[in-house]
């Protein structure tokens, strides 16, 4: 009698855990950046078949390969062939038996979400004490694809990225999963009809942002100042200002830098540090995108 093959249990919170199911390590990883609630990895893998395994996190796979990949996937014994194209998204819930095989070289993003983190978001947006993420074979999801590319860009940038932007993307991803790929009592969702933050809470949040522009601000700490969850704060802040928190923070940084460029003789490197950018190249790129010219050109123009 043949011994029954053991199903691997994989914890993607461990640095080298991919070695249990994939032949190559990730090309890039957020592991050392320690993004709250999730790990983000970009892979290039040869033709491969994974052993049967369960993963302790919820996993989102996003294909980056321009060519069609012929593949097969098994969820808890349910088999399906897949023709995976660029941007296709598969969702592998935590603790579900999973096997995947692909017949040509593959490039893909893996986002692994901690169940406790997703549960916290679920409670914040709708008081969901219990919910179940549904497995999904590879198919398009433009929003998840966009979020994956945005997180990839942040990870690849020379700076450490804006933590408030990364947290905003993470929260958007979690809410999208819960609304579209979750089996739960949808009647427990409550949508507030508030038109935005109260005047004093808005002033408190804005004052905190402006007082701490030189810091790597996080969405969690800004929301904590007004004693709100990240999800509700983000939604009401945008209703009040027209901007998501990370957009507002970035605009404040650029406006502060414009004043310093015009009114002081400090170096551009020193100014970029004072307004919270991790590198001069990141500062220059954002400044050019929002203002249309580089900080150096702006200084030359306003000092004429």
How far apart the termini lie comes to 87 Å
**Share of residues in helices:** 40-55%
Mean pLDDT equals 88
**Count of DSSP-assigned helices:** 10
* Structural class estimated from helices and strands: alpha+beta
Overall tally of structural domains: 2
**CATH class category of the largest domain:** Mainly Beta
Please name the defining characteristics of this protein:
304 residues; Jelly Rolls; Arc Repressor Mutant, subunit A; 2 domains; 4-stranded antiparallel sheet; 10 helices; globular
Set out the fold topology.
Blueprint: E1 8-10, E2 28-29, E3 38-45, E4 48-49, E5 53-55, E6 58-63, E7 69-75, E8 78-84, E9 88-92, E10 98-102, E11 106-113, H1 115-126, E12 132-133, E13 136-140, H2 142-156, H3 163-180, E14 182-183, H4 199-211, H5 219-225, H6 230-241, H7 245-263, H8 268-274, H9 280-291, H10 295-302
Parallel strand pairs: 1-5
Antiparallel strand pairs: 2-3, 3-11, 4-10, 6-9, 6-11, 7-8, 7-10, 9-13, 12-14
Structure, described:
The chain has 10 helices and 14 strands. 32% of the residues are buried. The strands form 4 sheets. The protein has a 6-stranded antiparallel β-sheet with strand order 2-3-11-6-9-13. Strands 4-10-7-8 form a 4-stranded antiparallel β-sheet, with no helix packed on it. Strands 1-5 form a two-stranded parallel sheet. The chain has helices at residues 115-126, 142-156, 163-180, 199-211, 219-225, 230-241, 245-263, 268-274, 280-291, 295-302, and strands at 8-10, 28-29, 38-45, 48-49, 53-55, 58-63, 69-75, 78-84, 88-92, 98-102, 106-113, 132-133, 136-140, 182-183. A hairpin with a 2-residue loop joins strand 7 (69-75) and strand 8. Helices cover 40% and strands 21% of the residues. With 304 residues, it is an alpha+beta fold. The model is unreliable at 186-193 (pLDDT under 50). The protein has 2 domains: 8-186, Jelly Rolls; 194-302, Orthogonal Bundle (Arc Repressor Mutant, subunit A), CATH 1.10.10.60. Helix 7 (245-263) crosses helix 10 (295-302). The longest helix is centred in the C-terminal third of the chain and has 19 residues, at 245-263.
